């Protein structure tokens, strides 16, 4: 990737981190007190994401491999791009608008523009698709574990309907491809819209070929498709351990299925507010409401949100640092 593009991504991420720090609705003495309260569970929460990102990387890596024995890009290079890409997504309003162009640009020298674009788009689709599968799974889990009144039944029905509708459209996208549509969307995003427009004009045939590759993966290599989806889904379930670890700081009465429900509701609420950088306020509010729905104190949800926000900040800084190291290694 050209240095100027990497610098744009890097600067954008740094600005978003500054915004996040300035909008942290808590005195720093109180924040430090909460971090001390977390004790050894804070390193456990941070370290858990080493494994979660490993699952994410494996999901993307098998798409890049495309059923072949080897690839021209090392696995740990893909891991680095995964972490940096998610760091940019955390920092980008609307999410999934900063990390993906970055990944395409970095992957292109290894596998070519067509393969880089198709693999990144496929992985993004898989990542989002797993969201809806996770939420749909959580609806059935809630029905199995919790009493459902009329109001909650209506909420679950609406969420379930939109999950099924989204799954339908994703399956349709897998059958027909989405590269051309995605590049048209990127042409409306600041900083990268010029690149996206030039890329679309110069690589029209390539993008159409990418769409055919996306359709081919779903139609002819279903084992790769479902392996990638399964890894993404497992990463989401594994991510619920973060809530489990944090709740162990506050209580010994911790249920992992309840942690799944907390994470499902919180992620749904936070994604509805995805237009905010790092989803400022959305994640904390989602945790507070989700624990209240499960009969816990709202303060517990706020504490979970604080620890998760610190973890996101540290991993975002890590991703940006990896981008900086990548830049130096190419100079």
3D architecture notes:
This protein is an all-alpha fold and 331 residues long. Helices cover 82% and strands 0% of the residues. The protein is built from 14 helices and no strands. Helix 3 (41-65) packs across helix 6 (113-145). The relative contact order is 0.15.
Q: Which short descriptors sum up this protein?
A:
mainly alpha, 331 residues
Mean pLDDT: 80
How much is the radius of gyration in Å?
20 Å
Low-confidence runs: none
| SSE class | mainly alpha
Which sheet architecture does the biggest sheet show?
Answer: none
Helical percentage: over 70%
What's the helix and strand layout?
Blueprint: H1 3-22, H2 28-38, H3 41-65, H4 75-91, H5 99-111, H6 113-145, H7 150-176, H8 179-186, H9 193-202, H10 204-220, H11 222-250, H12 256-272, H13 282-293, H14 298-330
Summarize the structure.
This protein is mainly alpha-helical. Helices cover 82% and strands 0% of the residues.
């Amino acid at each position: 990737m050209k240095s100027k593009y990497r610098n744009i991504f890097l600067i954008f991420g740094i600005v978003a981190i500054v915004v996040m720090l300035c909008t942290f609705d808590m005195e720093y003495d109180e924040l430090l007190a909460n971090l001390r309260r977390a004790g050894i569970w804070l390193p456990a929460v941070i370290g858990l994401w080493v494994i979660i990102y490993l699952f994410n990387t494996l999901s993307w890596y098998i798409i890049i491999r495309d059923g072949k024995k080897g690839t021209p890009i090392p696995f740990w290079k893909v891991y680095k791009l995964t972490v940096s890409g998610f760091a940019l997504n955390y920092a980008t309003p609307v999410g999934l608008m900063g990390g993906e162009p970055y990944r395409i640009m970095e992957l292109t020298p290894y596998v070519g523009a067509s393969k880089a674009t198709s693999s990144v788009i496929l992985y993004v689709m898989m990542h989002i698709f797993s969201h809806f599968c996770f939420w749909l799974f959580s609806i059935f889990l809630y029905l199995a574990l919790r009493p459902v009144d009329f109001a909650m039944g209506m909420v679950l029905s609406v969420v379930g309907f939109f999950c099924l509708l989204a799954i339908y459209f994703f399956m349709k996208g897998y059958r027909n491809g989405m590269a051309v549509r995605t590049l048209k969307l990127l042409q409306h995003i600041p900083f990268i819209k010029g690149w996206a427009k030039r890329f679309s004009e110069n690589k029209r045939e390539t993008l159409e070929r990418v769409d055919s590759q996306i359709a081919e993966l779903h139609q002819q290599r279903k084992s790769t498709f479902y392996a990638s989806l399964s890894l993404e889904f497992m990463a989401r379930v594994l991510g619920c351990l973060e809530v489990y670890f944090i709740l162990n700081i506050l209580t010994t009465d911790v249920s992992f299925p309840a942690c799944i429900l907390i994470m499902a509701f919180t992620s749904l609420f936070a994604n509805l507010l995805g237009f905010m950088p790092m989803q400022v306020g959305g994640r904390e509010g989602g945790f507070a409401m989700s624990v209240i729905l499960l009969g816990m104190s709202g303060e517990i949800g706020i504490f979970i949100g604080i620890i998760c926000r610190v973890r996101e900040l540290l991993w975002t800084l890590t991703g940006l640092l990896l981008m900086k190291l990548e830049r130096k290694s190419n100079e």
